């Protein structure tokens, strides 16, 4: 059986490679074809459009940067959905807003297909080593059907609930990351302004009750100011934006989220968008 | 040797009890004398003013609610500093702003005494069980002198730096707590609005990379909505305020801190000030 | 010549009535047909779908609540654009985000038609008395062609620039309103908490250099707490949301806008959405 | 009768000059004595300390930059209060927090004197031309006694209420200014990012219902980017800080104020503190 994989960026290329390693035949598509070369060299078929992927696969994964890109690939002029054999299964691992996932689920169903939103927790390294955590929304039996594929790419699969709830959990998760990262950056800013070293602050705070595990992983980046991207700041900013839009759709207020979002927007404006999202610290507390 | 202890609230009463257990003779003072009864029953001397404490002790601890209360006790009309024998040592464990600690250190020195700012990390239970962490600012040899006393009340003593830096670390620490607590409350709000249960959200988020240790300790409070105070919301709000004032004094901007501070201010306005600070969740996501 | 008018809510019904008074034959459509009764009684033709309006008109106005509603009316299954005679002119007076206006302009052009975004400044009363101000984006000659129609509904027509810039100016305008309204509400909150009466505060502040003209119009509402809607709070909240989304699209940060937006979101959560937007004061400074 | 005047900065020097023009003998003090030269050349007596002013005057004005500076001048080692003849009258025109004014009123009364808080609305030019507006807190008969002096410096005198309420109104007033200025800067930022010129934005917005009078006065500064100070940004930032501290003292939440405050803090951090406060626009929307 062929497995389709659309979107071969930082994350997608590594996830697809793990599927390939597990013995699956891949049909891949990426806007920039050269990103597919490594996969093709190991036997993957390169499609020239999403539509061509659709013709050859009953299971397709998408891992794209924005809801618009996902919609184009699935439902656009050369979209894959209309070409897939009846009752196929589309798994969207992109980080999108929950209402978008629900809309895609309906669009798939209307065309006789099945859908799972299955975004992942974890960035570059876990993608490479197959240690991602999948947060899945949709029918339990659909999940069961593709569970071996997810296991090839991740260490854990959490079935959160119905269509959209995988995306919901992902957005909530990344919103929490953004807020904690921003908070930690402000804590270091205040502490260093008072004459405490970054080292002492990190050691004290990260070994204390506020030391969230991912902050410990970012510590070296902060101390060395090497913000090479694991998860780019502009992506986190996008996720905070999707969280804000979702809050609006739900009719709820999230004041602090919105302020943090604007701090990340300022960091992006200042040119840090392609750095790791921990570079928000470089915006809040620049070295002179 | 007598040890003075001024301020017998939730924290102070338990800290003093641990000093007493370790065999020290205490001279204690509290505005409401009855809070001293348990200590007096076990041999502590009750003073009628801070001044009376000053006359009997070369080492005095203060554990009071606000900078104003500390200043009144030390330097007011019946303050203890002017009565202490030359070269005495005052340890202020109250949570105050760093510039206040620096001012107190200077006032003490001017009167021939020594000063340590030594606020604590940890709330009710660690205070009771002697598991506090002291964050100390001041001279290393002064700290060495009273180290056995701190060890009787805490499990760890961190010498952060010069006068004021104990308070600096404490403020930075509590600011981080407040921001993470507020962030987690917003995350649960967004998640539940999207139909995910509080249990699933807590389990997923707290076992993930954003799961700060203290959030795990608050989980039961959140799920049961029993916000009996370990660390009252109005105190955390005060600490966020002190962080804001300190940022102003340092000439730095901390946008997110200020928004979180106002969320806690709204929670306090809504009548939650005496609840645990995790009750900010009850403000953000009330049960109807 | 027939003029089409789609959307007969608080604003649209009054604008259409002024076109009718000026002697124009109207073909109208509204989801709830009974809102068209007064116009029909005076000679307007009631269409059963937007499509039916399209068949009978070379000029169509839309005045709808959300971008989605506009898109449905113009481009949906029963949309009017595909039915209009070649080279027709569609004027959208709805308040929408600028990128949406640009997208609609392109959609119209692709189908051989012309487009103006022409949202209005002014609420219920100016709509009724023909005192609106049109903020127009699009080609000057298209504007010239329908200028007499706009003059029948408004006192002023400002040609801001190209497609989308009418909507841009409108969003900027309403964002300024929302921020000033929120600021004034906070000013009254602080002043009354300090014991100054609302009357003294209004008199002093509104006659001073910060007294924006629209605040003077809201003064009576604030003092009497009669927040019957001229411009509903939930609509202003929507506009602040569109401003936020537009800022994201433009890659810029607007921190204060986002905080005000969340204050309005909280007011809406508290049940004030259908009140006048000045009711944000009732949220910030409730009478007990 | 001698009139004392302490604090001869941008505002104080011009206010004192108007008193002098009205025929009053002045005894003046300023930390930097040379700022008194113009006044001395026209007959004023230069005192070497506040205390020396106190010895020669029954009425003293203070116009200083911070609460600390006021307290030092009045109650410090060389303070004037203790030297004034019994039942003297001290008028503090500095912008301070209300609780500070109340404390100064009590300190004066305790020493047998009377006090008015009488901060002014208006900056450099109104100070020069005697067009200030005094916002007065204190006893009506005390105000009546010095009314001719205030009339020599201002065009209007508003008796707001009891001690502290002059300061309250001033803080509320400046808080409103800061928020409207910040809002307008963000409006211009969004508008220009969408391709509308600053000129069109200013013309449309300032002639519309949101056009607060003081914004019109700032228009030229914004369009020419000449931010020579009329009212320095760092002073407005200080006033926003005092408003925030006052809100904390009053137990109320003002979320938007705090976000604007931090935007001004960032502008100050960026080196704009000594520019006019309208330079917040230069921070939000820098020319590249």
TrEMBL record, chains A, B, C, D:
The keyword Oxidoreductase applies. The active site is at 170. It comes from the Bacteria. The keyword Cytoplasm does not apply. Keywords: NAD, Oxidoreductase. Residues 2-161 form the 6-phosphogluconate dehydrogenase NADP-binding domain. Pfam families: NAD_binding_11, NAD_binding_2. GO terms for molecular function: NAD binding; NADP binding; oxidoreductase activity. PROSITE patterns: 3_HYDROXYISOBUT_DH. InterPro entries: 3-OH-isobutyrate_DH-rel_CS, 6-PGluconate_DH-like_C_sf, 6PGD_dom2, 6PGDH_NADP-bd, HIBADH-like_NADP-bd, HIBADH-related, HIBADH-related_NP60_sf, NAD(P)-bd_dom_sf. Residues 164-283 form the 3-hydroxyisobutyrate dehydrogenase-like NAD-binding domain. GO terms for biological process: organic acid catabolic process. PANTHER family: CYTOKINE-LIKE NUCLEAR FACTOR N-PAC (PTHR43580:SF2), OXIDOREDUCTASE GLYR1-RELATED (PTHR43580). This is NAD(P)-dependent oxidoreductase.
């Amino acid at each position: 059986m062929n497995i389709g994989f659309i979107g071969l960026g930082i994350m997608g290329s590594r996830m697809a490679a793990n599927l390939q390693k597990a013995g699956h035949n891949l049909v891949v598509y990426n806007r920039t074809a050269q990103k597919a070369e490594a996969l093709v060299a190991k036997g993957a078929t390169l499609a020239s459009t999403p539509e061509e992927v659709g013709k050859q696969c009953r299971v397709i994964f998408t891992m794209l940067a924005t809801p618009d890109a996902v919609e184009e690939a699935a439902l656009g002029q050369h979209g894959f959905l209309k070409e897939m054999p009846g009752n196929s299964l589309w798994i969207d691992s992109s980080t999108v807003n929950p209402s978008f996932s629900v809309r895609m689920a309906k669009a798939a169903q209307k065309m006789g297909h099945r859908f799972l939103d299955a975004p992942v927790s974890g960035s570059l390294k876990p993608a490479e080593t197959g240690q991602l955590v999948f947060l899945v929304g949709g029918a339990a039996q659909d999940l069961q059907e593709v569970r071996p594929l997810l296991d090839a790419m991740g260490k854990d699969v959490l079935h959160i609930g119905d269509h959209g709830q995988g995306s919901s959990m992902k957005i909530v998760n990344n919103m929490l990351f953004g807020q904690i990262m921003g908070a930690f950056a402000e804590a270091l800013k205040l502490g260093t302004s008072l004459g405490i070293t970054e080292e002492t602050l990190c050691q004290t705070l990260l070994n204390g009750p506020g030391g969230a595990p991912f902050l410990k992983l970012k510590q070296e980046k902060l101390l060395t100011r090497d913000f090479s991207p694991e998860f780019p700041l502009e992506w986190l900013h996008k996720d905070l934006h999707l969280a804000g839009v979702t809050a609006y759709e739900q009719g709820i207020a999230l004041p602090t989220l919105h302020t943090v979002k604007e701090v990340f927007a300022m960091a992006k404006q200042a040119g840090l968008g392609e750095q790791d999202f921990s570079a928000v610290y470089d915006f809040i507390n620049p070295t002179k």
